[in-house]
Amino acid sequence: MSQASVELPPKGGFSFDLCKRNDMLTQKGLKAPSYLKTGTTIVGLIFEDGVILGADTRATEGPIVADKNCEKIHYMAPNIYCCGAGTAADTEAVTDMVSSQLRLHRYQTGRDSRVITALTLLKKHLFSYQGHVSAALVLGGVDITGPHLHTIYPHGSTDTLPFATMGSGSLAAMSVFEARYKEGLTRDEGIKLVAEAICSGIFNDLGSGSNVDICVITKGHKEYLRNYMEPNPRTYVSSKGYSFTKKTEVLLTKITPLSEKVEIVEVAGEAMEE
Amino acid sequence: MSIFEYNGSAVVAMVGKNCFAIASDRRLGVQLQTIATDFQRISKIHDHLFIGLSGLATDVQTLYQRLVFRHKLYQLREERDMKPETFASLVSAILYEKRFGPYLCQPVIAGLGDDNKPFICTMDSIGAKELAKDFVVSGTASESLYGACEAMFKPDMEAEELFETISQALLSSVDRDCLSGWGGHVYVVTPNEIKEKILKGRMD
Predict the structure, then answer these.
(1) B123 close to B142: Cβ distance less than 8 angstroms
(2) Pairwise CA distance, residues A235 & A246, whole Å
(3) Using an 8 Å Cβ cutoff, are A202 and A56 in contact?
(4) Whole-angstrom Cα distance, residue A167 to residue A98?
(5) Is the distance from CB of B23 to CB of B177 less than 8 angstroms?
(6) What are phi and psi of B100, to 5 degrees?
(7) How many beta carbons lie within 10 A of that of residue A186, not counting itself?
(8) Which residues of A touch B123 (CB under 8 A)?
(9) Most buried one in A205, A224, A233, B25, CB count within 10 A?
(10) What Gene Ontology cellular component terms go with this record (chain B) (predicted)?
(11) Within its chain, how far is the Cα of B198 from the centroid?
């Protein structure tokens, strides 16, 4: 019987085995890596029929733009969506996890998910990690009790608001909302206001950029307008493209042909005699 | 000095017409001293799925062994190969599990999915997926690689042209980075074959 334990796939939750080694490396003078952040402008507002969420699409790694068109509006439930700012891995992981928990809850109760359920699951998780899971979220949706919009901060506090902005571009976007928001906006007015707020974040905040994504949620219906506006098209592409006069020198080439997988065809015939 | 600059690396993947190419440099160093000039950074998971890992070399090898283990288990249970999108989610989950004490490497995943549609993605060291339709880069030479790929990339290139483009982008970027280089290793994968080429580059 072997003494060594078999490495089984883990049961879930965080694992801390490399922490000691990473601390040792940091003490030796090697800086820790920087994570992909979504500098971001994310907004939400409540209009007459429901909720509109908006986000920009730039993902940064330090000062470099790592992704020019990432998706920051995450699916939670058919009637609930969540925009995320902060460390990209944290916003994606936390929204995916709560989305799965909501689905299991829907199967168990047989009812549509409520926004307040998603809110409580998210704030519980974020509070228990005391802000180390760096996810700032704008959660919006329409359930049986009506439209709801909430903001969730990385330490676990929440606010319930008629209009909200988060991220590095939140001040730019909030200035647009404070000037022009009123109750009972129509769908088109709401979309126009959200697009303007995100654009003010894109143009004035260095951590936000590229395109505008919008999600409109109403009772029983949702519309995800990916790349609703593209105010920053690439205009400098050379039509000829690059032509390389001097080819790369190759030292060694190895070609592995991939065979087609064999298909077994059942031929209807006589059964073999025993 | 950053932990990623301890060993030095450059990995890039590009999408072509029903094919993809993934390339890396070949240097393994300990800060400024070169230890090896034939380090394998790109590994095959199955015939249509490759993963290139940049960053701390020990974590590159450990993570690769863990991923091969999980893929083999998957093959035994499901009796088929993993799709690239599924594999990307698996890598993301394995990296996020170590959120507060991460593997110090950044993977670049490239594969051919259903209908021979190429799929590429990269992640930061804690598993934030970045799906791109054109190219993805990682490593110490990543800033130069971003610039070179932005300029040289064209959509829908055939395998030959894709090979030329990715090689030129890789070699010109690593020439501007002290910590990566010493040749290049390029894999161009089409539905029918895998072409592996070793490039001649500046050996400094």
Answers:
(1) no
(2) 28
(3) yes
(4) 21
(5) no
(6) -100, 5
(7) 11
(8) 36, 89
(9) B25
(10) proteasome complex
(11) 15
Whole-structure pTM value: 0.88
Structure tokens at A227: 């790349």
Distance of CA A52 to the CA centre of its chain: 16
Type and span of the H or E element at B200: none
Alpha-carbon distance B159 to nearest alpha carbon in chain A (angstroms): 13
Q: Reply yes or no on whether the pLDDT at A242 is more than 90.
A: no
A36 CB neighbours in chain B (<8 A) are: 123-124, 128, 130
Which positions in chain A touch B96 (Cβ < 8 Å)? 89, 93
B158 CB neighbour count, 10 Å cutoff:
12
Run of H or E including A10: none
- Distance CA(A194)–CA(B187), nearest Å, equals 45
**Min distance B146 CA to chain A CA atoms (Å):** 9
Q: Which residues of A touch B171 (CB under 8 A)?
A: 248
Angle of helix A115-128 versus helix A88-109 axis, rounded to 10: 130
Which of residues 183 through 202 in chain B touch A, CB cutoff 8 A? 183-184, 191-200
Residue A271 pLDDT > 90: no
**Phi and psi for A211 in degrees, rounded to 5?**
-105, 175
Burial of A74 (0-12, 13-18, 19+ CB in 10 A): buried
B31 in contact with chain A, both atoms CB, cutoff 8 A: no
Using CB atoms, pick whichever of A66, A248, A254 lies closest to residue B196.
A254
A91: nearest CA partner in chain B: B128
Give the Cα separation of B156 and A181 in Å (integer): 45
CB B99 within 8 A of CB A14: yes
Q: Is A191 helix (H, G, I), strand (E, B) or coil?
A: helix
- Looking at the predicted structure, is the pLDDT value of residue A30 above 70? yes
d(CA A7, CA B172) in angstroms, rounded, equals 42
- Write down the ipTM of this complex: 0.86
pLDDT tens digits, A91-117 = 999 999 999 999 999 999 999 999 999
Q: How far does the CA of residue A182 sit from the closest CA of chain B (Å)? A: 37
The tokens for A155 are 């330490």
Determine how many CB atoms are found less than 10 A away from the CB of residue A17. Answer: 9
Rounded-to-integer distance, Cα A255 and Cα A85, Å: 45
Nearest alpha carbon to residue B88 among B69, B104, B68, B111: B111
- Per-residue tokens: A45: 């507002």
Please say whether the beta carbons of B118 and B21 come within 8 A.
no
Contact A143, A99 (CB under 8 A): no
What pLDDT is stored for residue A2 in this prediction? 42
Are A248 and B129 within 8 A, CB to CB? no
